[in-house]
Amino acid sequence: MAGKFISLEGGEGVGKTTLIQKLRSHLEARGLEVVVTREPGGTPGAEVLRDILLTGATDRWSPVTEALLMYAARVDHVERLIQPALARGAWVLSDRFSDSTIAYQGAAGGMDIARIRQLHHVALEDFYPDLTFVLDLDPLVGLRRTVERGEDPTRFEMHDTEFHARLRDAFLRIVKDEPQRCQVLDASRPPEEVFDAALAVMSEKLGASA
Fold first, then answer.
1. Which DSSP symbol is given to 79?
2. Is the peptide bond before 179 cis (omega within 30 degrees of 0)?
């Protein structure tokens, strides 16, 4: 039986990692193989590009260059990890996928979204997740969470608050445009409540196997 591909999206500090780990434990308890991955990254080649994309000054790359680098990493990620896992029946949980390019490089960065969609079609044709969770949270709360983690900020975390507000709006528009694939989760709620909401959506969208 073919596996399922679930992506988790949202701004900085919304709790994607916490939810992914809870979903992983739930699915593995049902006897499913689960592959947890991230973007940019997930494969050795894509992880090299991740370091290039996430470090340096905020203006290190233009939004167009960022999108091209993101898709170079994404194609390698899909071909070498995601598609083989799905073919053997595994469930793939990815921290970010193509919607992040629409939001970060498109709506927040200023690249024409139609060009990004063309790029996706050239690179991956009609390959998209089976289900996408968008974790929604006040950007200031999310950024405060990233500071509290004590990690060095990425290039994207260092953008101004207007950039992060545009990100939030962009993700919510994606959900509105693609309601069959995408579902908003209120990331201001306790992690266990977010997890329960995600399970309910998975059962509705993906059936009893979830």
1. I
2. no
Instruction: For residue range 3-18, list pLDDT tens digits in order.
Output: 999 999 998 889 999 9
Q: Which domain holds residue 174?
A: 5-206
Q: Give the SS3 label for residue 189.
A: coil
> Model pTM?
0.92
* Contact between residue 65 and residue 35 where contact means Cβ atoms under 8 Å apart: no
Task: Please state, in angstroms and rounded to a whole number, the distance separating the CA atoms of residues 209 and 59.
Answer: 44
Beta bridge partners of 183: 133
Give the count of domains, the chain. 1
Exposed / middle / buried, residue 122 (Cβ in 10 Å: 0-12, 13-18, 19+): exposed
How distant, in Å, are the alpha carbons of 9, 14, 37, 151 from that of 43?
Answer: 19, 24, 9, 22
Q: What is the CA radius of gyration of the chain?
A: 16
Question: Which residue's entry shows tokens 């507000």?
Answer: 165
Contact between 91 and 6 (Cβ < 8 Å): yes
pLDDT band at 2; cut points 50, 70, 90: confident
CA distances (Å), origin 63, targets 7, 9, 25, 113, 158:
22, 19, 36, 11, 15
Where residue 120 sits, what CATH number does that domain have?
Answer: 3.40.50.300
